[in-house]
Amino acid sequence: MNSTSHPKGLYLLFFTEMWERFSYYGMRAIFTLFMIKALLFDKVYASEIYGSYIGLVYLTPLIGGYVADRYWGNRKSILAGGILMAAGHFCMFLSASNYGHLAVAQPLLFLGLGLLIFGNGFFKPNISTMVGQLYPEGDKRVDAAFTIFYMGINLGAFFAPLVCGGFGETGNPADFKWGFLAAGIGMIISIASFELLKNRYLVTPGGEGIGLAPQKKAINNNHTTASQPQWRQVLLWACISILLFCGFYFLTGSGIIGSGIFTVSIAGPAAIITDKTLTSIEKQRIAVIYILAFFVIFFWAAFEQAGASLTFFAAEQTDRSFSGTEIPASFFQSINAVLIVVLAPLFAMLWTFLGQRNIEPSSPAKHALGLLFLSTGYLVIAFGVKDLDPTVKVSMMWLFSLYLLHTIGELCLSPIGLAMVVKLAPAKFASLLMGVWFLSLAAASKLAGILSALYPDSASGVTSAFLGFEITSLYEFFMIFVILSGVASLILFTLAKTLQEMMHQEP
Fold it and tell me: Are residues 504 and 286 in contact, defined by beta-carbon separation less than 8 angstroms?
């Protein structure tokens, strides 16, 4: 029976995810600044590392989702992921402690990033999937539950840059280590709270535990029927993957990591939807997830500039003086998170208000709205910097306006997407398809790093080009994101009605 209240397990997942996101966004807030100011990497190299890291962080959930659905279950996967991520943050701490010795700092940096990447793969898809498992099928509270869960994500994201940036970005390169240490402590709090309280609160309405390892009997039955290894199909997808990788590597110059991310983002979802046990309606629903995931790439490629090019912009071309002090550039990454916390309840009420009058936009239409608001945000700041002299700094209000519009766009897209995957995914592929959804973030994040490397550096005088167009100013740089996200929004608006019909559900 439905009610307006939510199970207590939701708030445990809220708290767990809040501290995990604190660790993630805290590290992200100072990551590029650490590479540039402490390790003395140039912006292009730092942007490439940033894009590869963020991309791989969202690629590995495909592995974590598969392992959880097949072997470990959500709970064990979350524990394993949390331990790996905590170890990764402490490797970053050690790297920053030895920033003066690049031969020591750089290997520790890449070791830490590797642990964070694989840890996130086991953690991220499984905790999101568990939110949906707390509710009976068809429960109308699921969208609201994901809005509450999303507030937890952004509450952690709000405090993270303030704490980790406050400790790490002091102007002294030796202090970056304290920011990474704070991120590691946040991860420990996350996993400790989950382990202590999971048995008590993570249960179905009937009192059965959720997120447990699949029963061996079910796995064995699965093996003896349609899921037996079909080596011909495995070989086929291996050949397709090799061809895709070679295409991306030699034709687009995406590099090994970028080519790998883009290849898996295509081959992985294609292999799932061709599973012969899926019904026609299930395939249509999965196709909707895939199509929206493709458009979401354009959103996150622009949105993730917050950790790279927009951080450069905040540090170099934004007047950050306030009451006689200078606000650290990393603090600006908290704007989005605090706006999420403030605006999320209003959006939850807005969707309810519109739904009661049968005028609520469909999930695909909401995604299109998100892209439109994102494009508008970049359009605002593009005109703010048009014809601007590189030596002149602009008001903080330009960045604030951009983040406000981006936040509105995010609320139209991100929590709606998570809820949509839970509603449309077949139960046997629940965590795996959540991993596929995060593949869009993997491709987008790698693309974000590639695009961030186009950021014009007036000091060096070096220019860059995108699709044959030379980028010589901030105006031209920001217009890239206006056009990419704006065109994607218009196309998705035209497809929204068709996609809604393929979902076989009410809006």
Answer: no
Residues in the chain, pLDDT under 70 = 1-4, 138, 140, 215-230, 307, 458-463, 506-507
89 in Cβ contact with 184 (< 8 Å):
yes
Bridge partners (DSSP) of residue 326 are 321
d(CA 294, CA 364): 12
The pLDDT assigned to 3 comes to 56
Task: Give dist(CA 158, CA 186) in Å, integer.
Answer: 13
| pTM for the structure as a whole | 0.76
Q: How many CB atoms lie within 10 A of CB 25?
A: 27
pLDDT at position 223: 47
For 221-255, b/e burial (b = at least 16 CB within 10 A) is eeeeeeeeeeeeeeeeeeeebeebbeebbeeeebb
Q: What tokens does 328 get?
A: 């650290």
**Residue 336 near residue 136, CB atoms below 8 Å:** no
H-state helical runs in 274-362: 280-303, 309-316, 334-356
Token pair for residue 188?
A: 């420990």
CA–CA dist 436, 421 (Å, integer): 10
Contact in structure between 435 and 61 (CB atoms under 8 Å): yes
Q: How far is CA 477 from CA 288, 295, 307, 373, 444, in A?
A: 32, 21, 16, 18, 17
Taken in order 391, 395, 401, 406, is the CA torsion positive or negative? positive
- Residue with structure tokens 């109308």? 140
Following DSSP, what letter does each residue of 187-254 receive, concatenated? HHHHHHHHHHHHHHH-B-TTS-BSSPPPPHHHHHHHHHTTTS--HHHHHHHHHHHHHHHHHIIIII--
Q: Is 462 helix (H, G, I), strand (E, B) or coil?
A: strand
